[in-house]
Design brief:
One of its GO terms (biological process) is mitochondrial translation. By secondary structure, the chain is α+β, with helices and mostly antiparallel strands. The protein contains 4 helices and 5 strands; from the N terminus they run E-E-E-E-E-H-H-H-H. The chain has a 3-stranded mixed beta sheet, with no helix packed on it. A two-stranded antiparallel sheet has the order 1-2. The radius of gyration is 38 Å and the shape is flat.
Length: 144
């Protein structure tokens, strides 16, 4: 059947009988289906509900239980937020002698490369001296 009858409301009280209009269920145009009503509404898939309790042992010895879709009842982590350097970078950099500080002291880090490239180590007084020298060089051509 190419057309389906659709019941619409009467336009006025004078027309007490409903008016039937035809609505296409199949397209006859090559331009798509934008003019055809949807036959059924789209439905989202059912959510995946976790059914299994899982006990998780972290690398520092602590543990917690959570619900998951995996049937494994126990999982032991070797790498987690307590021992991963990406998660504890501030502790690594703040506490004691560690990799970054040793690299800088040995001259193999970024600051070491900078010092080798540009020669000397600069402090606050050196920066002010360099600034004054640059200002004097700028003023010298103006006096001529």
């Amino acid at each position: 059947m190419l057309a389906r009858l659709s019941k619409t409301q009467p336009i006025s009280k004078a027309l007490s009988t409903p008016i039937y209009t035809s609505v296409r269920t199949k397209t006859t145009t090559p331009y798509g289906r934008s003019h055809i009503r949807a036959m059924r509404s789209r439905k989202l898939p059912n959510p995946v509900v976790p059914h299994f309790p899982q006990l998780v042992y972290r690398s520092d010895g602590s543990s917690f239980t959570h619900w998951t879709t995996s049937p494994r009842s126990v999982i032991t982590l070797t790498r987690d937020t307590s021992n991963n350097p990406l998660w504890s970078a501030t502790a690594r950099m703040m506490g004691g002698r560690t990799g970054v500080e040793e690299e800088e002291e040995a001259g193999t880090g970024r600051m070491g490369r900078f010092k080798r490239r540009f020669g000397k180590e600069l402090d606050v007084d050196s920066w002010s001296d360099i600034h004054e020298e640059a200002k004097a060089e700028d003023d010298a051509p103006a006096k001529k």
